Amino acid sequence: MGKQLRVGIIGTGSISHMHITSYEKNENAEIIALCDIDEKRLKTAADKYGIEKTYADYRRMFAECALDAVSVCTWNSQHAPCAIAALEAGLHVLCEKPMAINRAEAETMREAAERSGKLLMIGFVRRFGNDCRVLKDFINNGDLGEIYYAKTTYIRRFGCPGGWYGDKARSGGGPLIDLGVHVIDLTRYLMGNPKPVSVYAAAFDKLLANKSVKDAKGYRSATKSNNNPADVEDMVSALVRYDNGAVLNIVTSFALNVKEDEGLIELMGTKGGAKLNPNLEIFTEKNGYMVNIGFNTPTALSFNGLFENEVNHFVDCALNGSPCLAPAGDGVVVMRIIDAIYESAQTKREVVINNN
Ligand SMILES: NC(=O)c1ccc[n+]([C@@H]2O[C@H](COP(=O)([O-])OP(=O)(O)OC[C@H]3O[C@@H](n4cnc5c(N)ncnc54)[C@H](O)[C@@H]3O)[C@@H](O)[C@H]2O)c1
Question: Mean pLDDT, the chain, as a whole number?
Fold first, then answer.
């Protein structure tokens, strides 16, 4: 029992259920309290999971519950204040993606973690997929050689979740910061975490502002308020250049007139290429022939188990000090890329990224 991690959850909306059920399955963690500013959501989650202690104010929760750690599952603009307050209260933090709504906030969060000596892990859940683990094994074995180009898409034909996701003040942006963040991080992770040096990008807001979010079937989970603007971009296309010469090409959208949704990760190296869409395939040359490698082990992206793997890793890092697979530093780098993409789209110029 001495090794039990006492956990609080801040934000009891849709994604919190993945965190809560994952902690429940982990024998070294115990959920002590829940916090949400929305009384109804808080009560629903507390009743569903039988958690007695509930709070509208996370500072009170920290003061009264002797927690060791929290998951921050609020909308994006609350990630920085909640995470910083938790770190300052001496708690380990698992913060949902995106790390923050901009680079400056992310850097402040990382500094707070360094000052506190506590763990700040970012919820880059795609890193915890089986598909990613298998591909990373091949990359580490040198099967792709030098990866010099990556192409990724996370395209929804019409899929703005509505609510705060369309409200720039609470989300920090649209598909780039919500969806693009996953695949920018995943491709960079698979490429060995190179440093970004510059980006060239374009963003459009031609469709979303003219459509009612009520039309967005299937993507209506977010907390609504009376004021639900859609003042975020519909679509972003960007080229990211890294310090090792490699380039990432990303397209992501909440609304785009295409035949169907698409989610693609493609890496191209000197010895081979790889594609996750959603099954892993590797393309190479053998004995002078072009060869495509498929897999017998499950390598398709499945959200089953992803959050459990992430939470199990967080609990292990918090209790045992194991090296973190998704540290705050990587969240900061992704926020630098995202900030630069928005700036390039606005200025219509290439933006050089300052990594200091
Ligand atoms: N990893 C993934 O694949 C994934 C998927 C969906 C969402 N997310 C992320 O999870 C976060 C939450 O998204 P969601 O869809 O669950 O949103 P949601 O609207 O369903 O839930 C957010 C909750 O946070 C609460 N909240 C906001 N500010 C708060 C504060 N200061 N204190 C306490 N509670 C507060 C809201 O009342 C709401 O209940 C977002 O950052 C989102 O990007 C990640």
Answer: 93
What was the pLDDT predicted at 229?
A: 65
Residue type, 125: V
Strand partners, 201: 238
Q: Are 9 and 70 in contact (CB under 8 A)?
A: yes
Q: For residues 199-219, give the mean pLDDT.
A: 71
**Residue 49: pLDDT over 60:** yes
Contacts of 250 (CB under 8 A, 6+ apart): 151, 152, 153, 154, 180, 183, 184, 187, 236, 237, 238, 240
Q: Which two tokens stand for residue 51?
A: 């958690």
* Closest approach atom of ligand 1 to CA 164: 19
Confidence of residue 189 (pLDDT cuts 50, 70, 90): very high
Q: What is the whole-number distance in angstroms between the Cα of residue 73 and the centre of ligand 1?
A: 4
Residue of 311 and 212 predicted with greater confidence: 311
pLDDT band for position 225 (cuts 50, 70, 90): low
> By three-state DSSP, how is residue 50 classified?
coil
Give the number of the atom of ligand 1 that is nearest the alpha carbon of residue 223: 19
Q: Where in the chain is the domain with CATH 3.30.360.10?
A: 127-301+334-352
Where in the chain do CATH 3.40.50.720 domains reside?
Answer: 5-125+307-322
Spell out the CATH class of 5-125+307-322.
alpha beta
| 127-301+334-352 topology per CATH | Dihydrodipicolinate Reductase; domain 2 (3.30.360)
Q: Which residues line ligand 1 (CB under 6 A)?
A: 10-16, 35-38, 41, 58, 73-76, 78, 82, 96-97, 123, 125, 163-164, 178, 221-223
Indicate the pTM of the whole model. 0.96
